[in-house]
Amino acid sequence: MSYPFQVRSMEQYEKAYKASVDEPEAFWASVAENFKWRKKWNKVLEWNFTEPKIEWFKGGKLNITENCIDRHLETLGDKPAFIWEPNSPDDRVRVVTYNRLHKRVCQFAQVLKNNGVKKGDRVCIYMGMIPELAYAVLGCARIGAIHSVIFGGFSAQSIADRLDDAKAEYIVTCDGAFRGGKDIPLKSVIDDALIGNKTVKRVIVYTRTRTPVSMIKGRDVWWEDEMEYAETQVEKDGIVSFSAEEMDAEDPLFILYTSGSTGKPKGVVHTCAGYMIWTTYTFVNVFQYKPGDIHFCTADIGWITGHSYIVYGPLSAGATSVMFEGIPTWPDAGRFWDIVDKHKVDILYTAPTAIRSLMGFGLEPLKGKDLSSLKILGTVGEPINEEAWHWYDENVGKKKCPIVDTWWQTETGGTLISNLAGVTPAIPSWASLPLPGVQPLLVDENGKEVLPTPSENGKLIASGNLCIKFPWPGILRTTWGDHERCRQNYFAAYPNLYFTGDGALKDEKGNYRITGRVDDVLNVSGHRIGTAEVENAINMHAGVVESAVVGYPHDIKGQGIYAYVVFGPKHGDEDLTRKDILQTVSRVIGPIAKPDKVQFVPGLPKTRSGKIMRRILRKIAEGEISNLGDTTTLLDPAVVEEIKKGKI
Ligand code: WT7
């Protein structure tokens, strides 16, 4: 049986969906035929969610970079793989053709090899958004090294923790990165992260900002020197070659750290074949990609969105991917629109927080910008409110572009629930229907499925915790170095189900509306931050006795971080102390985790057994002071009154 790789009508969607449920192995085998394999798989799928054990295309051999690059060279060699837009609009745009990408990736793969990197070794990448970041990622994949990209907003301490967890021996970084009006001294952060580190053998440093850096003999080398030498090794008589490592379908491709409800981020592990198939399939179907389309995903490669929809998905589909070094509001709030106009972008994929922030600048920045190339718009990362949806639809898409609201997670590799552009209906603020292969359901606290029942407005609606009952190729396989943690986190809450951590509504047609996290994870500007992590960081400040962190609705960020802090014997200025606490969080996690509000409180509301009643703190932070529910089980109800009085 053969199924079309791209579904182009509602009817085809329904057929594909049904086939993916009725005969998943035949369905995915048919999809997998669209890729380049060194050796075909023995078994399409083996799984159980109890261990969990999930294996897709076991026995199959491939290299993802041959799928993302080599297989396109004959037909698309001179077409752009990347169009790179620099931070400053006055700097030179770089166009990286597939041929050029092939050469650079081969060269960098050779550099890694020359520096002792072998298949299975962990390489930590801490760079700005420049083409070299993509070369580094793909260079690792080419030799089978496991990359672990760390977003530039994380601190030295966070990097040190991740290096230690992954036992990484190699780092690729830059002297610095340009972001808006700022230069971020990346290498110097790495140097701090390496104080006391005993595993890292080599740091490869690319020059971007020409910030002075310390280069330690025997450990640190320059990217440029290494690449120049490697060029003589991989290029002979004008022909570039570096044979890719043959990988098993289930060999790890990368680790990406993400926050959960405990204090320590987990290393989500994705494997070669399943991830490749999932990112490509979802890219082509959700955005209804047509050959020649220019795709602009505004995320950072430090997050999963950038991995899947700037690098792997688009390249594997042979698309042109726009990579932007800067930020949407610098030098002015028209930057995205300039990029769309300049590069004739067809597909624009961004975050609700970016849309809301740009909305705040009004329509002026859009004036005179030709957005007529746009065909499809997308959002990701958090629920989109209707106001932002309509603004995007009217002012950016001019009511002509379908908007896809793509729901997914670091752990899912690619989109699980979304409308397919122009193929299945878009409903503002609803992610809508599951992709083929995805079998969601809503459950109550006891794991019992909840089905749509009549709601206040007469419509049939279900509300519950969002789970998935069958594996899709892009599901995480484990958390690095701790499989039990993976089981506990995702597969233990409800037997035989993957639990997403999100709450959702479902209507009678099977559409889903994601309402947000139901665990102690915050979504701040689309960045995932664990409350326990922020609390740990605050508690490291010498004067802090204890703290509790909750989220509250924030007009632009979606959620803001509200910290209640019990401080020891006070000394000095309260405002300065507050700044000291922010500085501590910046040091321990990174500037992205800084609380928006810090309230000093005499104590925290606790039950008699000592558990913090977060429900009450959340309500106060949300401003719902009059309706706090039952407080009689509190050890000291008076503390709630004090907290209410001091609310900021
Ligand atoms: C969490 C995952 C997916 C890549 C970026 C974030 C929230 C994501 C949506 C959406 C409502 C969404 C969920 C999810 N989320 N997309 N379209 N509508 N909520 O990846 O850092 O792993 O965060 O982001 O709460 O669990 P992440």
Report what the structure shows.
The chain is an alpha/beta fold and 648 residues long. The protein folds into three domains: 10-65 and 252-517, ANL, N-terminal domain (Rossmann fold), CATH 3.40.50.12780; 98-245, Rossmann fold (3-Layer(aba) Sandwich), CATH 3.40.50.980; 538-645, ANL, C-terminal domain (GMP Synthetase, Chain A, domain 3). It is built from 19 helices and 33 strands. Strands 5-4-19-18-20-21-22 form a seven-stranded mixed sheet, with helices on both faces. A five-stranded parallel sheet has the order 7-6-8-11-12, with helices on both faces. Strands 23, 24, 25, 27 and 28 form a five-stranded antiparallel sheet that branches. Strand 4 and strand 5 (94-97) form a beta hairpin. Helix 5 (98-114) crosses helix 6 (131-143), helix 5 crosses helix 9 (223-234) and helix 10 (272-286) crosses helix 11 (304-316). The model has no long low-confidence stretch (mean pLDDT 96). The structure holds 5'-O-[(S)-butoxy(hydroxy)phosphoryl]adenosine (WT7). Residues 258, 304-305, 380-383, 405-410, 431, 500-502, 514, 516-517, 523, 528 line the site of 5'-O-[(S)-butoxy(hydroxy)phosphoryl]adenosine. 5'-O-[(S)-butoxy(hydroxy)phosphoryl]adenosine (WT7) is lined by residues 258, 304-305, 380-383, 405-410, 431, 500-502, 514, 516-517, 523, 528.
